[in-house]
Amino acid sequence: MRVAYICADPGVPVFGTKGSSVHVQEIVRAWRRAGAEVTVYCTRRGTERPADLADLPVVEIRPESASGAGREKAIREAAAALAHAVVRDGCDLAYERYSLFSAALATVTQVLRVPAVLEVNAPLIEEQQQYRELHDAGLAKGMLCTNAAAATVVACVSEPVVQWVERRVPGARTLLAPNGVNTERVTPRVVGRKRSGPLTVAFVGTLKPWHGVGYLLEAVALANAGTARHTWSATIIGDGPCRQDLERQAAELGVEAEFTGAVPPAAVPGLLHACDAAAAPYPQPVPGRDDYFSPLKVYEYLAAGMPVIASEVGQIPAILQHGHTGILVPPSDPAALAAALARLASSEELQARLGAQARAAAVALYSWDSVLATIHQALMNDMRVA
């Protein structure tokens, strides 16, 4: 089977360090493991190509340089050019990562008459309006309707995303397909190694306000308060607009914190292995807005065999079993985070047990192969009905 993977979003480099880049690479790997020949069609290739994808064919068509409304038009034109490239090359299945200004999937399916998957990771229209700028909302809405209506399957990473698509495109053939993890790339840490100094809690992700890293730093300071020697330090793996503020906060709190900056995905497991726990300290949800994310970091923590501390928001309670594969805490609550850190510090047995059970859950439930199998089964079911 020849699969055309389309990503028209210039904010998602195929070979990059962002979580979205990891997602692209892992879906491609899963298709290749399933025996497919994959060609990627994108607006941004990126520079961090992993060795195992060295032979992956990539067609890059960059948008014209522009700003504001002109940028949106340029992305739409680049997406149309990607669709024409797919039609020229041919494929047996088209798979597109949803982006705001692309209707490439609809074009490909209309011409080639092949099954198609639209993967939706977030309600991008509202995201763009809230956090960036959206000049032509009508165009963005029209592109979503066109692509989702043309797709054989619309694979959504969470139930709120399913509902968002169904509200905007009634009749879309939606499927819940949460994210996963590559349990071969993310290997389990070695438990019981000798070490000196404080324990270390890790965070992986882009340093933006809605990831709650500031609460984690506050929690580390609280966990260390009143102790002769600091019990916990922090390793912050990633980069982003909040980095300087977080570095300043750590210094003011007296928290020993290493900020690694952005690292290639292949480096993340080794950095996690050097830590003793991992955190997803998401803040309190904004009233009236669903927590739609399916956090890659939590799946990677599980696969690395880490004791996980995470806020009880969004999809996280469906991923982590409290007391079995992790510790759930209320959001925006540094004291609860600190109590969880203290609980882990007091028991090596608890650290080892949570880590082992986390790894077992990742292997049994959350592989990318199982994600793709869910999508593939939906495709087969639809084709049998047709």
Attribute tags:
386 residues, alpha/beta, 43% helix
Provide a descriptive summary of the structure in words:
The chain has 14 helices and 13 strands. 43% of the residues lie in helices and 16% in strands. With 386 residues, it is α/β, with parallel strands linked by helices. It is globular.
Short overview:
This protein has 386 residues and is α/β, with parallel strands linked by helices. It is 43% helix and 16% strand.
**Helix/strand order, N-terminal first:** EHEEHEHEHHEHEEHEHEHEHEHEHHH
SS-based class: alpha/beta
Q: How many β strands by DSSP?
A: 13
Beta-strand share of residues: 15-25%
- The oligomeric status of these chains comes to single chain
What can be said about the biggest beta sheet? 7 strands, parallel
Rg (CA only): 21 Å
Low-confidence stretches: none
* Ends distance: 20 Å
Alpha plus pi helix count: 14
Helix content range of the residues, please? 40-55%
Coarse morphology:
globular
Strand order of the largest sheet: 3-2-1-4-5-6-7
The average pLDDT score comes to: 93
Give the secondary structure arrangement, pairings included.
Layout: E1 2-7, H1 19-33, E2 37-42, E3 58-60, H2 69-89, E4 93-97, H3 104-112, E5 116-120, H4 124-131, H5 137-150, E6 153-156, H6 159-168, E7 174-176, E8 199-204, H7 213-224, E9 232-237, H8 243-253, E10 257-261, H9 268-273, E11 277-280, H10 296-303, E12 308-311, H11 316-319, E13 327-329, H12 334-345, H13 348-365, H14 368-385
Parallel strand pairs: 1-2, 1-4, 2-3, 4-5, 5-6, 6-7, 8-9, 8-11, 9-10, 11-12, 12-13
Helix pairs in contact: 2-3, 3-5, 7-8, 7-12, 10-13
